[in-house]
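Hey, can you fold this one?
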Amino acid sequence: MKTLALILTLTFLTAAPSSVYDFKLKNIDGKPFSLAKYKGKKVLIVNTASKCGFTPQYAELQKLADQYKDKLVVVGFPANNFGQQEPGADTEIKTFCEKNYGVTFPLSTKVSVKGDDIDPLFKYLTTETNPDFTGEIKWNFEKFLIDEHGKLIHRYRSTTKPLDPAITSAL
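Sure. Predicted structure:
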């Protein structure tokens, strides 16, 4: 009986994630959080950076979050994978976002979105089937639209602005 319990436990621990709700994350303040708290709403996951040509998208992300707050949550994931454009510590990133763009939407602690140290959530997002494309993130501010059940439904490159009809029509 102990052997069966151990096998079941190991199977559970190594089971592939079935949605974004299966991942344990930390917010920018270092506290644990789960995307499962947003069940019933769509979630736009964005890998962000403070020193990028796309950084002004923070303003549109905040507008999107405000405009669609009843059915969408925007979550930013700062990453330093592209051109060292997010070199700061979490406290610096949070202050920068609040001061320069009035960001109130949730931010995670800084993560890696590609390479050997890729965060498990981004490994899942870049390999999960969706109608757009899969594969490695090419640059900062790529966007992943998650449905109300935690499933990836669309992916957008950095050049797609947050208020683009390609995104807003999917909300």
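The longest helix spans residues 2-14. Let me know if you want another pass with a different chain boundary.
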